[in-house]
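Quick note —
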Amino acid sequence: MNTANHGGARKGAGRKKNSGSFKEETKVIRVPVSLVNTINPVIEIYKSQVKSDVEVLLANDNPTELSIPIFTSRVQAGFPSPADDHLEDTLDLNTHLIHHKEATFFVKAQGDSMIGAGIQQGDILIVDKSLTAKSGKIVIAVVDGEFTVKRLHKYKGSITLKAENPDFKDIKIGGDDELIIWGVVTSVIHQYE
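Predicted structure written out below.
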């Protein structure tokens, strides 16, 4: 039996190197069926070449514990008060900000459509995919394949993704629009210069 023409790699067969969506070498992996709906949106983010007002940063599976001192003295936002420097405890920001580690992602905001909600260009949003997206919550949504961060508004069966900047239009979801609520924003990390 001649096996030279059967099985194995054949010259010129298959996808050309670096020709797929990612323009780089890929690796086949096996994923439990229960995780497919969690992993697919992440892959789609990286494949997407469309404009988006979010950029996803994956949370580390094993974040390093970072305990920072927290003091009993409260900082007055109004009139100054006498300072005392009694150390109360330590604060681990991973524990404080991330409640469902396996369902949490970091997203970097792009643009100014949500400045009224305190979300500015370059802010890091902490997004929890395990939470139910209720009306009034700020969400990461995929509308017709394009990612956006907006405030979810549901009223009498209609859905609107509301901008928090009068210079931007709300997105009213029609019958032909494809909408996926990808996760709920739980915290915003903003750095001051």
